[in-house]
């Protein structure tokens, strides 16, 4: 393990500069015992806090319980015999939780001419200051009915409540009009179960995605292990393994991965090259045969997915004259930087990466870095291609609250983006593209998921003339799980098309995605959440499904059997970091940190769509729900669409 994790509490006085980037969530063990009273008095003296608020003791308890007490494992291969170490946080982090002014001078920040952006109200960690939409929004409905998000006919049938697939097939056979599209039959089949555990790990899972052909599913863990699972066969029945052993794909028990248990067929397990803190991102090549992964270092590694090779090929984005420089006592030279996100190009011959305010392009055939651009004023947390076919338009998303659009054909020739997407008021954790070169979505620490149309982006000139101002809360740190009440719901120059709310983008860089085009036309948007739930929105703004990971069944249950109605869970809140929707069947896989405050254990769950016969509620409950929805639709119709003198018929409705 790196030296930056080996810091004790005595270093609080030195205002250290240890690793403080995104996802630096601090772990703990249940047997941690700290003298809270002494720490409480010490911080009172340093911060000048003379009167304790009612929540102060809870804040300190949450703070010091979140410290990491674990056995270090130098280089990822230690024997666990090293002494226990404590990792600390800085005075700045303390004061973010205390809701007090920083020890820094107020002049360190640019003054706000309009109003004061100090934190006024911390509230609950999952406080929803702006509630989600309960009714369809006009802009979203226009997008749904515009033909760019799948078949319009299936959406019309849904609005008329004519979604019976059997009736559709019978009607089609009596009136031949060609084959029924796959989307028409499956667009309403949204995964609706809280899931069953299919894999567990002792380390946090940071990435969990299906391959492009949905034939396998892979995870990347904080212990720098990559696991690849076969999705062409169903999960096998759970078998209790002998102590410290696991069952391999051949059914033989071994101890090569003793902290990993699964009911899925394992195709391959790769021990990645140890980097800094964790694997931050990964991506598959267009042919699914190669995978790249990044950590908070200047090097991205490439490995093969399905063959027996375990070779790790380094892709170095650092300047050539800096690669041989001596490292500092932290293990990294002074000019080092971290890569947070990486992507293959459309042809698989280049790799684009984003990190400490920069974006890079590496030519794999020429084996050299070809582009380096100072793109943002803060970390680039995520990047993606807007058009998966040509790979000419690149999107970068940063903690400076902005998304920037770059034309690959002019990268390097110009340091200016083609345009900027303005709307978030806090840093952006993830950006994901529909793949058509027009629409993308982004998750923000302002607890908003925004949909963008690249044709409506802000020009670089307008951005430089005033739209570049950010409206971040000065002392907010999303890693501690508290989002204070903001001054604004959006940037004054907001150019997003739609906003989706209801989830918690806290604790880690929560990811979001479009639903599969093959089966849904991309008409849904879904995201993980720090509140332990998976949120699925219709494009029109409404939440159509919420899956609760706190009610996920254990690995001993059959994922395809009848869903069991579990009692109210007393488990710690699961933090769902990544979710992936299968395009061949209505199944989701979610990667959740399941270890309580420490978040030191992860569980992958399988969420299926199940018909009424396998759901935990009865036919009477379902009929009552349908009647209520029908009455609500009728009421809305009479209020908004009633024409004087018209009859209230189904046709008018």
Automatic annotation (TrEMBL):
Stored SUPFAM superfamilies:
WD40 repeat-like
Q: Which Gene3D superfamilies match?
A: YVTN repeat-like/Quinoprotein amine dehydrogenase
Keyword annotations of the record: Repeat, WD repeat
Region Disordered: start-end pairs:
1-26, 98-117, 630-653
- Has the keyword Repeat been applied to this entry? yes
Q: Which PROSITE patterns match?
A: WD_REPEATS_2, WD_REPEATS_REGION
What InterPro entries does the annotation carry? DCAF, WD40/YVTN_repeat-like_dom_sf, WD40_PAC1, WD40_repeat_dom_sf, WD40_rpt
Question: GO cellular component terms?
Answer: Cul4-RING E3 ubiquitin ligase complex
Repeat positions for WD: 373-407, 421-455
UniProt-listed GO biological process terms = proteasome-mediated ubiquitin-dependent protein catabolic process
- Please note every region of biased composition (Acidic residues): 10-26, 107-117
| Name of the molecule in the record | WD40-repeat-containing domain protein
Q: Give the species this sequence originates from.
A: Suillus subaureus
């Amino acid at each position: 393990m790196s030296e930056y994790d080996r810091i004790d509490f005595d270093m609080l006085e030195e205002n250290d500069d240890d690793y403080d980037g995104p996802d630096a969530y601090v772990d703990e063990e249940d047997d941690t015992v700290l003298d809270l009273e002494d720490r409480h008095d010490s911080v009172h003296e340093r911060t000048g806090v003379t009167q304790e608020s009612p929540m102060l003791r809870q804040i300190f308890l949450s703070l010091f319980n979140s410290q990491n007490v674990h056995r270090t494992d130098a280089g990822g291969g230690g024997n666990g015999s090293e002494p226990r170490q404590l990792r600390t946080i800085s005075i700045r982090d303390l004061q973010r939780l205390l809701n007090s002014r920083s020890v820094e001078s107020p002049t360190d920040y640019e003054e706000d001419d309009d109003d004061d952006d100090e934190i006024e109200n911390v509230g609950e960690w999952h406080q929803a200051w702006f509630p989600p939409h309960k009714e369809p929004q006009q802009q979203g409905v226009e997008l749904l009915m515009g033909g760019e998000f799948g078949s319009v006919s299936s959406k019309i049938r849904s609005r008329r409540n004519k979604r019976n697939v059997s009736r559709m097939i019978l009607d089609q056979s009596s009136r031949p009009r060609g084959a029924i599209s796959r989307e028409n039959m499956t667009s309403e089949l949204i995964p609706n179960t809280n899931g069953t555990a299919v894999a567990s790990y002792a380390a946090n899972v940071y990435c969990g995605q299906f391959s492009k052909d949905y034939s396998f599913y892979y995870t990347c863990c904080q212990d720098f292990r990559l696991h690849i699972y076969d999705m062409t066969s169903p999960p096998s029945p759970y078998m209790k393994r002998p102590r410290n052993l696991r069952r391999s794909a051949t059914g033989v028990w071994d101890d090569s991965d003793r902290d990993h248990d699964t009911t899925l067929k394992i195709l391959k397990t790769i021990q990645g090259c140890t980097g800094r803190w964790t694997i931050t991102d990964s991506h598959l090549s267009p042919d699914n045969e190669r995978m790249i992964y990044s950590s908070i270092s200047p090097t991205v590694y490439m490995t093969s997915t399905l063959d027996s090779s375990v070779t790790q090929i380094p892709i170095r984005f650092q300047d050539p004259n800096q690669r041989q420089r001596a490292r500092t006592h932290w293990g990294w030279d002074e000019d080092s930087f971290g890569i947070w996100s990486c992507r293959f190009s459309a042809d698989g011959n280049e790799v684009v990466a984003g990190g400490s305010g920069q974006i890079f392009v590496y030519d794999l055939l020429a084996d050299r870095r070809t582009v380096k651009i100072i793109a943002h004023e803060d970390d680039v947390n995520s990047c993606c291609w807007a058009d998966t076919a040509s790979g000419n338009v690149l999107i970068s998303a940063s903690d400076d609250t902005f998304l920037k659009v770059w034309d690959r054909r002019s990268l390097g020739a110009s340091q200016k983006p083609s345009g900027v997407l303005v709307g978030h008021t806090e840093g952006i954790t993830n950006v994901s593209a529909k793949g058509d070169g027009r629409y993308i979505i982004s998750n923000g620490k302002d607890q908003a998921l925004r949909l963008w149309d690249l044709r409506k982006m802000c020009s670089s000139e307008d951005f430089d003339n005033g739209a570049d101002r950010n409206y971040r809360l000065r002392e907010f740190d999303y890693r501690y799980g508290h989002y204070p009440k903001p001054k604004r719901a959006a940037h004054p120059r907001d150019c997003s098309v739609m906003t989706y709310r209801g989830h918690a983008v806290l604790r880690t860089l929560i990811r979001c995605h479009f639903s599969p085009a093959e089966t849904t036309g991309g008409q849904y948007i879904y995201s993980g959440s720090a509140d332990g739930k998976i949120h699925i929105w219709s494009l029109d703004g409404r939440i159509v499904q919420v899956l609760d990971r706190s009610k996920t069944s254990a690995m001993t249950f059959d994922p395809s059997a009848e869903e069991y109605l579990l009692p109210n869970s007393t488990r710690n809140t699961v933090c769902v970091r990544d979710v992936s929707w299968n395009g061949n069947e209505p199944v989701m896989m979610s990667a959740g940190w399941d270890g309580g405050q420490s978040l030191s254990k992860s569980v992958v769950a399988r969420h299926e769509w199940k018909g009424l016969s396998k759901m935990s509620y009865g036919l009477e409950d379902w009929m009552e729900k349908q009647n209520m929805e029908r009455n609500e639709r009728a009421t809305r119709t009479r209020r908004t669409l009633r024409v004087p003198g018209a009859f209230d018929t189904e046709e008018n409705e």
